[in-house]
Specification:
The chain has helices spanning 5-14, 54-67, 75-79, 82-95, 106-117, 132-141, 153-161, 186-195, 218-221, 251-260, 262-265, 272-287, 289-309, 328-340, 370-386; strands spanning 31-34, 37-41, 99-103, 123-127, 144-148, 169-174, 199-203, 231-235, 245-249, 320-326, 343-344, 347-348, 358-363. With 388 residues, the protein is an alpha/beta fold.
Length: 388
């Protein structure tokens, strides 16, 4: 029996923290269909607009015809197929690392690498605003965990000074923070990792494909060599418009993960069609810089437009633009009003963000048109008058 479930659900409803799904009846484009209504999508991670791209779909269809619809086994048994090997090679080449390993999702990749490398004799230094998958990876590793203030390298330095008697020390950070859109101070983190002989791991799920001259992510954005980062984690399901989670780095690191990571060993490998579409995406991103250029033009237009209207967009530096409202109820009311006006922009509330920091998490796509953006800004100006 689970007698308290309804009480918990009622409490969520009363505090405006009840969540439910909306069924999208179309592809993940800038225009979507929900409940027989057309809406402009402004809360997808499909940053480069590739999730419905004919090149990715063609690669997936071809892989299905050749390899079927599932790998139907873990990678170490019989689930590792030619598309997996090709994707790992392409991801390592794209990130300029020695090797890469593919997981079904970014979440399982973070769990897998942290539990494979760390244990009770180790310590992790984790940014205060890291993604939940990192938090769960820290907990499952059984290592001691020290949280440093968001982006505060002085605070991190003081913690590193007091943590020398551990087998392994790991600094872990998002590259681009998924709810705030700001970028980790990577050069300073690299310096600290070198000074204290500490492993550095960057979850660049929201940076890959977006940041850097070639879209390689946060390390390229700062002009760093990929070797400056010990563990590169990224996701195929954001800017790449595809699927999967990836750990890249030295070959010996990847060999150890294959042998020690429970979320790699004990789960069915990613479907071959998903591997093929992700590989196609890497090729497209490498050879079509105009897509990324369009994204950055849209980012700047929307961010500047919202700031001129007086909205608080925090310290965003990227395609993730938080419109910070504060109050849960007001956040949901604004999200609902936007929905009624033809804009799908989801309201984010605690525990995903800190108390008093509820927001609309606006994410920009390269394929948003000038008309889409103007309609968004005009509508936000009208909504602002209604809710002030």
């Amino acid at each position: 029996m689970l007698p308290d479930i309804n009480k918990e659900l009622q409490a969520l409803r009363e505090t405006d923290r009840f969540r439910s799904t909306k069924q999208i009846e179309s592809a993940q484009e800038t225009r979507i269909r929900i409940d027989d209504r057309d809406l402009i999508l402004f809360c997808s991670n499909n940053y480069l607009g590739l999730a419905n791209h004919p090149t990715l779909k063609g690669a997936a269809v071809e892989a299905i015809h050749r390899y079927g619809t599932s790998s139907v086994a873990s990678a170490l048994i019989s689930g590792y197929m030619a598309p997996h090997a090709e994707l790992e090679t392409c991801m390592a080449k794209f990130l300029t690392t020695e090797a890469s390993v593919v997981f079904p999702t970014g979440y399982t990749a973070n769990l897998g690498v942290m539990t494979a490398l760390l244990g009770p004799d180790d310590i992790i230094f984790s940014d205060q605003l890291n993604h939940r998958s990192i938090i769960d990876g820290c907990r499952l590793s059984r290592a001691k965990v020290e949280i440093y203030s968001h982006g505060d390298t002085d605070h991190l330095h003081s913690k590193l000074q007091n943590a020398k008697n551990y087998r392994r020390r790991l600094i872990v950070t998002d590259g681009v923070f998924s709810m705030d859109g700001d970028i980790a101070p990577l050069p300073e983190l690299v310096s600290l990792a070198q000074e204290f002989q500490t492993i550095l791991m960057v979850d660049d799920a929201h940076g890959t494909g977006v940041l850097g001259a070639n879209g390689r992510g946060t390390f390229e954005h700062f002009g760093l060599s990929s070797d400056a980062i010990d563990i590169h984690m990224t996701s195929g399901s954001k800017a790449l418009g595809a699927s999967g989670g990836f750990i890249s780095g030295r070959s010996d690191l990847i060999d150890l993960i294959r042998n020690r990571s429970a979320s790699y060993i004990y789960t069915t490998a990613m479907p071959p069609d998903a591997c093929a579409s992700t590989t196609a995406s890497l090729d497209l991103i490498s050879n079509t810089p105009a897509i990324r250029q369009n994204l950055w033009h849209n980012i700047e237009t929307i961010r500047e437009g919202l700031q001129k209207l007086g909205f608080d967009v925090g310290n965003t530096q990227t395609q993730i633009i938080p419109i910070i409202i504060g109050d849960d109820k007001k956040t949901i009311a604004i999200s609902t009003e936007l929905y009624e006006r033809g804009i799908y922009l989801y309201g984010i509330r605690p525990p995903t963000v800190p108390e008093g920091q509820s927001r609309l998490r606006l994410s920009v796509m390269a394929t948003h048109t000038k008309e889409d953006i103007q309609y968004l800004l005009n509508t936000m100006a009208e909504v602002q008058k209604t809710f002030t």
